[in-house]
Amino acid sequence: MSFLEVMQSRYTTKKFDASKKITPENIEALKEILQLAPSSINSQPWKFTFVSNSEIKAKLADVSWINTSKILNCDTLIVLSRVKSLEAFEARIEKELPQGAVGFYNDFIKKLPEPQIYAWFEKQVYLALGVLLSACADMGIDATPMEGIEPDAYDTILGQKEHTTLVAVAIGYRDADDTNQPHIKPKSRTALKNVIEEI
């Protein structure tokens, strides 16, 4: 399949088949793909937590509003988090990034109010989210991105001290009865002419 065909066929899975498992090789591939995700100045202000432990998944499901069944039945839950400490982030980029990248951060990002800096971090995490969803689709893995979760509760359950949860993605394989499948419920998107402009 071409990538266009992959995107035409992917959808947000509403019901997973708990009996179907993702191969360890594919899980490892997704980890490496996330490691390679792009970010502004290669800042990488993130952490990705792969949760397959059923007890931890159940605890996270309890603090995920309407997404409980998706988390319980998916193969793996991937939690995407951003860095919490500006000081720790700045110390890391000073050691790891070239001076030009650090200079860009100091000249254009560091001067912003703290909420805007954290918003910039979050934009980078969402770049990685797009890569993850695309990779899953290309690998034939079904995925459901979820903001309908309680981030503080996630942080407590996962023992996160240096990062804070933004979004979670349930991955696995669709149940045959999932009514959100494109052949049952066709994709709904704004017309191409309304979202694309040529100049």
From TrEMBL:
Q: Which cofactor does it need?
A: FMN
Alphabetical GO CC annotations of the entry are: cytosol
Organism ancestry: Bacteria, Pseudomonadati, Bacteroidota, Flavobacteriia, Flavobacteriales
The protein here is known as: Nitroreductase/dihydropteridine reductase
Q: Which domain of life is it from?
A: Bacteria
Q: Where is the Nitroreductase domain?
A: 8-173
- Family, per entry: Belongs to the nitroreductase family.
Q: Which InterPro entries match?
A: NfsB-like, Nitroreductase, Nitroreductase-like, Nitroreductase/BluB
Which terms under GO biological process does the entry name?
2,4,6-trinitrotoluene catabolic process
Assigned keywords, A-Z: Flavoprotein, FMN, NAD, NADP, Oxidoreductase
Q: Which GO terms describe its molecular function?
A: oxidoreductase activity, acting on other nitrogenous compounds as donors, with NAD or NADP as acceptor
